[in-house]
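Course assignment 3, question 2. Fill in each field.
Student: A.L.
Task: Predict the tertiary structure for the chain below.
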Amino acid sequence: MQLLTLTAHLMDVLPFGGPHGPGDAAPGPNAAAILAAAFPWIVISLIHGVLVWITARKRRSNPWVWTILALVPVVDWLTTPLFFFLSLLSVLDRLHALEAARPAAAAPPPGAAQATWEA
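Answer field:
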């Protein structure tokens, strides 16, 4: 929330365009205003890139592809959630494999009473 307030304040303070004179075209935003408006997006993309890099290395996936996709400003909002969803699915697959590999002796007996919350 503070980041959006800071960006709005910078957009109010920074001037847009050059001097206005007769015959001048309508001024466009200058480079400082564009950078100030894009600053929050750049910071969030960098955070996504770092998180995706770390997670891709732990998943033994290619970190370069995922990180580059996470750093592209519009694409990162699509690829980062997809990447973390795929990570969640791989964790669930590993848990399922561990449950399937559990020996039958470790499983509770078929007639064992289940704990209930009834008083």
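Instructor remarks: Helices lie at 2-13, 31-58, 63-71, 76-101. The chain has one domain: 2-14+29-102.
Grade: pending
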